[in-house]
Specification:
Strand order of the largest sheet: 7-6-5-8-9-10
Distance between the termini: 53 Å
Number of helices: 8
Largest sheet: 6 strands, parallel
Order of helices and strands: HEHEEEHEHEHEHEHEHE
Radius of gyration: 20 Å
Helix content: 25-40%
Structural class: alpha/beta
Strand content: 15-25%
Number of strands: 10
Length: 255
């Protein structure tokens, strides 16, 4: 019969035994080596075919993972040698899943730019990926852009941001001769509004080393175009892949 097996707390050997008893044909890991992963279970081979998909935008780097669900833009043929999976399951376009239309409907909010500390006039650069995705070179480039666009602000999310991190980013902005108060941080809102307010940004800036996934979809659903710089790794090519199915909302650059 159907149903769920909750394996988040059992020991690795116990979990593997439970799965073996199910005589599964395929196991799909939806989060790879991210938080609360159970790759330790997969290492014991509880299924003959084990697939890495959706939640971890990279090769598993492990011989016990047989296949990776991806697409030719995210994982171009010339980079095949960097993937340990024996099979790359290539979808014809974007391999990720976004369901904003079904889950959220049209974006709506009663809030205004001013409510969120954003200027009524002036350009708002949205940078809503988690701040741990922002490398030094990217932040420096953003500050250079802000120097060239007077009155603009950089709008970031407080999701998973410590007070110390926010202070360090403001200090880095000041070091780049950008006033620290031009960095605007917003707390996380309920899902429907969280997406709708993304429309207050004039343009969203993707993080090159590790692109936004759902965050990019949020910006597009909120009506904001996204600028991305594709690099070599799968994690840095997701927005380029999304461009295959939503070309009108995405801007790609090569430098």
């Amino acid at each position: 019969g159907g149903g769920y097996l909750h394996l988040n707390k059992c020991a690795v050997g116990e979990c593997a035994d439970v799965l073996n008893q199910q005589q599964l044909h395929i196991i799909a890991s939806l989060n790879g080596w991210t938080g609360e992963d159970r790759m330790d279970i997969l290492s014991l081979r509880p299924a003959p075919l084990q697939v890495n998909m959706l939640g971890y935008a990279a090769t598993a780097g492990a011989g016990f993972v047989d296949a990776l669900l991806t697409d030719a833009t995210s994982a171009p043929p010339e980079y095949r040698g960097f993937y340990t999976e024996r099979t790359l399951l290539m979808l014809p376009s974007f391999h990720h899943i976004m369901a904003h239309k079904d889950n959220l409907g049209p974006p709506k909010t009663k809030r205004t730019r001013s409510d969120l500390g954003l200027p009524v006039g002036g350009i708002v650069f949205g940078a809503h990926n988690r701040v741990k995705k922002i490398d030094k070179g990217t932040f420096s480039a953003w500050m250079y852009i802000m120097q060239k666009v007077p009155g603009s602000v950089m709008w970031l999310s407080r999701l998973a941001v410590s007070p110390g991190t926010e202070a360090r980013l403001r200090k880095a902005a000041e070091g780049a001769k950008v006033s620290p108060d031009r960095l605007v941080f917003t707390d996380t809102l309920p899902a429907s509004e969280h997406v709708a307010i993304k429309g207050f940004a004039d343009i969203a800036l993707d993080t090159p080393l590790y692109n936004g996934h759902i965050t990019t979809g949020d910006a597009l659903w909120g009506g904001t175009p996204v600028l991305a710089l594709p690099l070599e790794a799968m994690a840095s090519r997701l927005t380029s892949s999304l461009h295959n199915v939503l070309p009108e909302g995405l801007l790609l650059t090569r430098t």
